[in-house]
Amino acid sequence: MSTKLVREEIAKFLARVTPEALCIRGKWGVGKTFAWDKALEAAQADKRVALKSYSYVSLFGVNSLDELKFAIFENVTSLDGGVKKADLSTLEAHVAKLGNWRRFTRIAQSLPVIKNLVGSDATGLVAFMSIKDQIVCIDDLERKGKNLEVSDVLGLISYLREQRNCKVILVLNDEQLCEDAKKSFDKHLEKVVDASLVYEPTALEAAKIGFPEQDELNKGLAERCTSLGITNIRVMKRIIRFAKDLQPLLQEYEKDVVSVARVALVLFCWANDQPEEAPSIDFLKSKSIDQFGLAQNKEVPPKEAAWNALLESYGYTWTDEFDLEILHSVRRGFFDPEEIKKHASALNAKVQATKADGSFEQAWRLYHDSFANNKDEVLDALYASFMKNYLYITPTNLNGTVTIFKELGRPKQAAEILTHYMANRNENREFYNLSEDHFGSITDPDVRAAFEAKYAQTEEKRDIRAMLINLKDGWRDDDLSTLASIPVSEFKKIFQQTSGQELRRILSGVFQFDRIVNATPQMLEIAKRARLALREIGGESDINRRRVKRFGVNLDDPSPADPEADPNSGQ
User: Fold this and answer.
1) CA dihedral angle for residue 441, residue 446, residue 452, residue 455, rounded to 10 degrees
2) Domain 3-201 falls in which CATH fold?
């Protein structure tokens, strides 16, 4: 049923004074409660609500029928001043209308038939007896407490309608009911409700709710959600939160970088939050392995083929390292600014360079966006673009390019591409470390062999300063080996170039080994060299002479560990 018809039916329901029950069903997060609230607000504003009192109750965590009854009572509000949430003032106003509370309590205690019907507690009894001639909305049936039965809820709805002249709205996602609850719901529903509506907004309708603001960010995200067919409002709210967190991290980069990040963000939020509807996380990861559609020996299941078509239309062709970092951020719930900026900077340099020379991705569009018999045109364009843009092409894209050239009959050019890439990329050692290729994107044997050889040949360049800063939190054996062998002059340089919290962390880290009972020779050597560096620093000024004393370095006390005489000082 369209949202327009749902709104119209709710409006008719509210305008009638007749006691009746209405059920609104729909998937998780599509805005069922929002639609009901807005319909009630609109009807009240137009003075087209027949009853003047209203109570909203969510069954989330409600564990008994008595709890539900009292919750209906304590959430009663008057609609005279508009639709508002219940609070202590609205409860006090409702109680004031009941007159003599104690008198009602004594009467209730003397009526065993009613007492058995609505509960044994006198206060709760009186509270529930006050519920009549009003609207009651019972939400989240699928999230009820385990001790509250669906049949009891439906029985209470029937009682409110037939005996208390109430209009009752039941809102739920019936697909999330457990098997027994679903059977009970289906069995009793027709006997209890007068009409059952299915709320199924289109992606465009849902986006208008999920992204109500009309700024560039909201409008762009709304378009992307609509393109994927997302209808879950809660997913959209999570997307906008992530997008606002991401925005300041990307403000210094090209618009194309921001666009790439947002495309990935929307897709991965959807896949993470609605795995039953979106392409699976594993499938999206596999787009980095087979990003060019080259797995000829693999039969593509119909579902994956449909996902491929959806992603092509959406503008998402493959998953690269930046995308994987966005995915990682979505799954853990926050962004690592350093990692985001590292990948964004690399993409930004690539965008800037290819604006003049032609985008490598644009060359790939010849492959993806046509069924023409244009193999030579595609491969010639890819070859020319690769040779110009190799500095901005990831190992994953290298692997795909080499693979397609081999499979389409140009093994010589495949070898040239690989040789050119390996000879001209001057990267740190970790760039070639295939053990960090967690998603198996480097599959071509020649590419793997080239990376393994380069990894073995490249000298490891380690960040000594970062190693010292992180020493307080733990270390690897090779960290200790490296730090125990660097010259005292390097310690001195780092100490003098660091300040504040980072300097405190470094000093705490190097001198922690003095507290370790079974410290290894390497640990003792690190502390020794650090202290020798401080001794040199203390000798350079009166103020530093005083500063280093707190670390056990007293220049007034002649020491056999004079840096000028120490063979390991590096001076």
Assistant:
1) -90
2) Rossmann fold (3.40.50)
